[in-house]
Write a structure and sequence with these properties.
Oligomer: single chain
Helix content: 25-40%
CATH topology of one domain: Rossmann fold
Number of helices: 25
Radius of gyration: 29 Å
Low-confidence stretches: 470-477, 566-574, 689-695
Shape: globular
Largest sheet: 7 strands, mixed
Number of strands: 28
Strand content: 15-25%
Structural class: alpha/beta
């Protein structure tokens, strides 16, 4: 289809608005209230255009493009109309700098002073340089405001974590209210009062933290002025450049942009083009990345134990010390643990080091007890070597029935929570299964309270009803009633109503996290969920909390197959186990005398430093390039945002140089690119081209096609329970051993701790 804008024929596809067609073709139409992902609002009226054959003017942001339309965007009448609208907007907005004749040379002679309680012009505004209103004023060429200036009443609100609110800078575009309601589903912000007294606020003028806000920062990113600002960077100088990275703070793999100045991280914001998050973020990625990188507990220099205390050392000295102690231990003498928050390059180098240099019987780590790992085990019990786990976030948004098992999505999986909200907005039925007494979900998710430890019985009751609907042997009503009333304390009618909705709707998705699959009963619960999914045609999606759990599982599986004769995991350190421990990442608390030698490779110091003989400082994911595989199975390469602080080094570099000290100079792993090539060659899931890889460059783990799912009985799980490694669950706010909720006061307030 084609239309004409300002005499220029333009082709378009789909159902875009006139504003979207113009923007996509480099035609500027001023606007302030439109925002990607939001429904058209047409509040500011700056985007009015003239459509041939229609009376008056129409807002381009809410008018659909149609075949044959002829549009004019810059007639003298439109320019005068926009100027008048903009003058009215600026009459209630500090505009001294916006219309100043000397503003182009202001920065050459006047330094910005932002630590002020009252903003009177751009040089005092936290949004200076990134304000959309500045761009619109410049485009229209406004140089005077003929109306008296009126400042909205109220001081800057600083009574919430992370966010400052200044209504004197608000232009009432409503973008913050709409993004909070339409995309985030929180509805913490709203319009308050009417007429000239209208402001953006909260119900009953409560703080945001008391209004259901999860401090995702979407309102700040949507605000076209400085009315909503991040407190941590409000008074900072503007970044000089930006670089994209993949957020490592949870398992979703969101795209972020990092603002940099003088080589330091200034601010992080969601990447509008992020394939996973599409311009959204959570409180950790939006506000706490800089705090994590520059935290006082960062390990920045190698340490070695001398006379019962740790002292700083050079890398050569620390590696020589570690190699000298390791050389005296025979094959299998060292237990190695790793973190699924490390990159694939780091994990591959560590697996290779453990297998080829240390001759260790495998790695333990935080991927043990993961949701994705449990699904693999259940798949094997059902006769499938690997159960497919790849999906796209948008698959959840298209579901018609969603059951969440235990996870609080707003905290642990916020972007998944947005897709659940989208599905619910489109009419999907969703519920969260959680034991009675469990804290309510932080989002607007209805819960199904059941007694603790009765999840398996609940799922079996639903399966019984499902079996009945699938023309199986009829389940006696008394059995369902017994399970519902006596064991679960759930009214039988409620159970049947829930089952009816579960089985009668369209595509169903079951989301479960590591807590659901953990413990002695975890596989039993998951088996019951597997059988229920098999009966109602639902899709099982594991939601793990670490940045690289899927990648860690694939690398571990490849090495297990490569060294099939080696036990899958080492015994515990002690008299009957390995004599030394190499902990690359967070580890459960150690006791003095646990091992003859303890080597810690970490980014943050913790209580285990008291037991360490050697400490090797590892760079964070913000400082080192690496590959991360998110919960979707999406393979993403993240470049470093900054150079490593102090003397911290990437994990693969540490392992390579330690291998050289142990007499293996040809170990390989000379660079992250070299490790990546070797990884692709050695691990089939990375080397093969996944089916369905798009032309845009998206890559997913290659998986074995699914066979016919079988049902699972208890007998199939007996062997798995005995060989299953202990769970290594972590808090959703933990990054490489740094618990952000404990270390950062503002997040602690948000979490209610």
């Amino acid at each position: 289809m084609t239309l004409t804008i300002d005499g220029r024929p333009i082709a378009f596809e789909g159902h875009p608005t006139l504003l979207e067609v113009a923007a996509a073709n480099g035609i500027f139409v001023p606007s302030l209230c439109d925002h990607p992902g939001l429904e058209p609002y047409a509040a500011c009226r700056l985007c009015l255009v003239e459509v041939q054959g229609r009376k008056g003017y129409v807002p381009a942001c809410s008018t659909a493009a149609e075949e044959g339309l002829v549009i004019r965007t810059s007639t003298p009448e439109l320019s005068a109309l926009r100027r008048g609208i903009l003058e009215l907007i600026l009459a209630e907005h500090p505009h001294a700098c916006l219309i100043c004749a000397e503003k182009t040379s202001c920065e050459d002679f006047k330094s910005t002073i932002r630590k002020t309680g009252e903003v009177t012009g751009c040089v005092l505004c936290p949004a200076n340089g990134r304000c959309r209103l500045q761009r619109v004023v410049a485009a229209i060429g406004l140089d005077a405001v003929p109306f008296p200036s009126r400042r909205r009443e109220g001081e800057v609100r600083r009574d919430d974590p992370f966010i400052d609110r200044d209504n004197s800078l608000c232009i009432l575009c409503g973008r913050c209210v709409r993004v909070c309601r339409e995309i985030r589903g929180a509805e913490a912000l709203t319009f308050v009062s009417r007429g000239s007294g209208t402001v953006i606020g909260t119900a009953l003028d409560r703080r945001l933290i008391d209004s259901g806000c999860q401090f995702c920062g979407a309102c700040i990113d949507a605000c076209p002025t400085g009315a909503l600002a991040e407190r941590g960077s409000r008074y900072d100088r503007l970044p000089e450049s930006e670089t994209p990275i993949i957020c490592p703070l949870c398992g979703q793999g969101c795209g972020l942009t990092v603002g940099l100045r003088d080589g330091r991280m200034m601010v992080t914001a969601p990447d509008p083009e992020g394939r996973v998050n599409r311009g959204q973020a959570c409180v950790r990625g939006r506000f706490l990345a800089r705090s994590a990188v520059y935290h006082p507990r960062r390990l920045l220099k190698p340490l070695i134990r001398e006379k019962d205390s740790l002292r700083e050392a050079s890398w050569d000295e620390a590696l020589d010390f570690a190699a000298g102690r390791l050389a005296g231990l025979g094959p299998g003498g060292v237990a190695v643990s790793a973190s699924a928050q490390n990159s694939c390059e780091d994990l591959f180098a560590l697996h290779k080091f453990a297998a080829e240099i240390l001759r260790s019987p495998g790695l333990t780590g935080s991927s043990a007890g993961s949701a994705a790992g449990a699904l693999r085990e259940i798949g094997r019990a059902a006769g499938q070597p690997v159960h497919p786990s790849n999906f796209r976030m948008t698959d959840i948004g298209l579901a018609k029935t969603i059951l969440i098992l235990g996870e609080d999505l707003a905290i642990a999986q916020p972007i998944v929570g947005l897709e659940v909200h989208r599905a619910m907005t489109n009419g999907a039925a969703a519920a969260r299964l959680a034991p009675a007494g469990c804290p309510p979900s932080s989002g607007n998710m209805p819960g199904i309270p059941i007694p603790p430890g009765k999840e398996e019985q609940f799922l079996k009751a639903l399966a019984a009803l499902a079996f009945d609907r699938h023309d199986g042997p009829r389940i006696h009503d008394g059995r369902v009633k017994k399970i519902a009333v006596r064991e679960l304390g759930v009214p039988e009618k409620s159970l049947r109503e829930f089952a009816s909705g579960l089985f009668s709707a369209g595509p169903a998705v079951f989301l479960f996290g590591p807590d659901f699959a953990a413990g002695n009963e975890g596989l039993g619960r998951l088996a019951a969920l597997w059988n229920l999914a098999r009966l109602c045609g639902a899709r099982l999606i594991p939601l793990d909390r670490e940045a690289n759990t899927r990648g860690a599982l694939e690398i571990a599986a490849a090495f297990a197959a490569r060294f099939a004769g080696t036990p899958e995991r080492p015994a515990r350190t002690g008299k009957n186990g390995p004599r030394a421990l190499y902990a690359a990442g967070p580890h459960h608390r150690l006791e003095r005398g646990t091992a003859e030698l303890v080597i810690i490779q970490a980014s943050y110091g913790d209580e285990n430093l008291e037991c360490a003989d050697v400490v090797l400082p590892e760079a964070t994911s913000f400082e080192a390039a690496g590959t991360l595989v998110n919960i979707e199975g999406r393979i993403q390469v993240s470049g470093p945002a900054i150079v490593p602080l102090g003397e911290a080094k990437p994990g693969w570099w540490i392992v390579k140089n330690l291998a050289a000290k142990l007499g293996a100079p040809d170990f390989g792993c000379g660079s992250e690119e070299e490790v990546r090539r070797e990884l692709a060659s050695a691990v089939p899931a990375f080397g093969a081209t996944p089916a369905g890889e798009s032309s845009s460059g998206e890559r997913f783990l290659a998986e074995v096609p699914a066979g016919e799912d079988a049902f699972i009985d208890k007998a199939s799980l007996r062997g798995l329970d005995a060989s299953r490694p202990p769970a290594a669950l972590r808090d959703a706010d933990d990054y490489k051993g740094l618990n952000l909720a404990q270390e950062h006061k503002s997040l602690r307030l948000v979490r209610g701790r």
